[in-house]
Amino acid sequence: MSTAEAGGVFHKARNRTLDAFPAEKEGEWKGPFYFILGTDPQFGLMKAWSTGDCDNGGDEWGQEIRLTEQAVQAINKLNPKPKFFVLCGDLIHAMPGKPWRKEQTEDLQRVLKTVDRAIPLVLVSGNHDIGNVPTSETIEEFCQTWGDDYFSFWVGGVLFLVLNSQFYENPSKCPGLKQAQDQWLDEQLNIARQRNCQHAIVFQHIPLFLKSIDEDDDDYFNLSKPARKRLADKFIHAGVKAVFSGHYHRNAGGTYQNLDMVVSSAIGCQLGLDPHGLRVVVVTADKIVHRYYSLDELSEKGIEDDLMDLIKKK
């Protein structure tokens, strides 16, 4: 999904791809670039968390509006511009069917329409966007509002895969849709392997793991051991270098074999000691380098020189 055109209409991911990045133009490596990763603006959670009522609270989200506005303003000032801005799920707090969902959605759309039109927007579905137990109806609502729930796109010879991670949590009410994503993912990973792309990178809301592939299931913040191991092994076999996720509202992550699992903290509500922030991700010919910035740091100082040197290196 790219940023809004005049009149505020989003270019949504359709037919499992993004029209902002034509595959015929983006299939070959063209040199280093960077993108910005944010996650969990989750309009409404800060009030709900402060009152201890995460299921029914969340009737105010002015703080999240201001934080997301600050994030967009910081991104718009960056030079050179990032290739895209990805939001890795939990766009709003109100679950499907809950009060305030429409109002939170409209307010987030209004803020995102101020993203520079030269910076495409990539949106990932989170559990609050489609429900902890998604249905065909909740997924269809997401697709109508924000674009496809899973898709792929190429940027400069790098293959990006956007996944619906709720299918790995609880697909009991939409098993056919989960099966369709599984088949599609296998096809995409085959393409990554056959084309020997420069890198392959995955975005999904729920992390495979928080620190270690062998950590215990915590029933919420990571995928179950069988699901995470199955996915991680598939990714490694296809040459995927990194998985970027949110959901934890803290910075975390680890490595399994040669796969990096990067868990990025939130634009919105923090559940740990991290500042509200964004992650700068630099893609070079041989590596993926990333750094988390507080919104204040990125707004006031921009990207540090060592990362800028990597971006400008030919």
Describe what you observe in this structure:
With 314 residues, this protein is an alpha/beta fold. It has one domain: Purple Acid Phosphatase, chain A, domain 2 (4-Layer Sandwich), CATH 3.60.21. The chain has 10 helices and 11 strands. It has helices at residues 23-26, 45-51, 62-77, 101-112, 127-130, 136-146, 175-195, 225-238, 295-301, 305-312, and strands at residues 33-38, 85-87, 121-123, 151-155, 158-162, 199-203, 240-245, 252-256, 259-263, 277-283, 288-294. Strands 4-5-6-7-9-8 form a 6-stranded mixed β-sheet. Strand 6, helix 8 and strand 7 (240-245) form a beta-alpha-beta unit. The longest helix is centred in the middle third of the chain and has 21 residues, at 175-195. The chain is globular and about 50 Å long. Residues 1-9 have low confidence and may be disordered.
Describe the protein's topology.
Elements: H1 23-26, E1 33-38, H2 45-51, H3 62-77, E2 85-87, H4 101-112, E3 121-123, H5 127-130, H6 136-146, E4 151-155, E5 158-162, H7 175-195, E6 199-203, H8 225-238, E7 240-245, E8 252-256, E9 259-263, E10 277-283, E11 288-294, H9 295-301, H10 305-312
Parallel strand pairs: 1-2, 2-3, 5-6, 6-7, 7-9
Antiparallel strand pairs: 1-10, 4-5, 8-9, 10-11
Enzyme class: hydrolase
Main location: cytoplasm
InterPro entries: Calcineurin-like_PHP, Metallo-depent_PP-like, MPP_CSTP1, STPP_CPPED1
